Amino acid sequence: MKIDYGELKRRVRLHELLERIGWTITEGRGEQLRGPCPFPACNANLASANKARRRTFSVHRGKSVYRCFSCGCSGNALEFWQAYRGISLYEAALELLQILETSNHPSSPSKPPPPQHHYSQPAKLADS
Ligand SMILES: [Zn+2]
Q1: Is 73 helix (H, G, I), strand (E, B) or coil?
Q2: Which residue among 20, 59, 104, 128 is least crowded, i.e. fewest CB within 10 A of its CB?
Q3: How many angstroms does the Cα of residue 55 sit away from the middle of ligand 1?
Q4: How far is ligand 1, taken at its centre, from the CA of residue 2, in Å?
Q5: 26 Cα: distance to centroid of ligand 1 (angstroms)
Q6: pLDDT at position 68, please?
Q7: How far away, in angstroms, is 45 Cα from ligand 1 center?
Q8: Distance, CA 37 to ligand 1 centroid (Å)?
Q9: From ligand 1's centre to the CA of 83, what distance in Å?
């Protein structure tokens, strides 16, 4: 499957990905959002640190780019997903395509369950 990375980057919104993984915004000012770094390795350092440092991760909503002032990581939405999931860029792109696919249909977030199989009524009543 061929992936149009440029198109993907235009469609994926980084802050939506972060919402998806439960990232908490500790500070939001216009396009700029701040919060704790979502990368486990970086967060481990922060656990013992002062609370003020739990806003080291900065996200630009409009540009869909991130930067962490603690671990120094930075990139776009695609690179974020790749690093966060620990997978290849191609795999990350595939996952993002899937996420876009499911989030593009807000009216039907999940498919209705398949119809239950009911035992058919007895074709004929017991002879009387
Ligand atoms: Zn970090």
Answers
A1: coil
A2: 128
A3: 10
A4: 31
A5: 15
A6: 94
A7: 9
A8: 5
A9: 11
Measured in angstroms, how far is the CA atom of residue 34 from the centroid of ligand 1? 12
User: Pseudo-torsion of CA 36, 42, 19, 29, nearest 10°?
Assistant: 30
Which class would CATH give 5-103?
alpha beta
- Kindly report, residue by residue over 104-117, the tens digit of the pLDDT: 665 544 555 666 66
Give the pLDDT mean for 32-40: 92
For residue 25, report the distance from its CA to the centre of ligand 1, in Å. Answer: 14
End-to-end CA, the chain: 65
Q: What is the pLDDT of residues 5-21, one digit of tens each?
A: 999 999 999 999 999 99
Phi, psi of 25 (to 5 degrees): -85, 120
Residue 115's pLDDT is 66
pLDDT computed for residue 53 by the predictor: 61
Higher pLDDT, 94 or 112: 94
Tell me the domain boundaries of the chain: 5-103
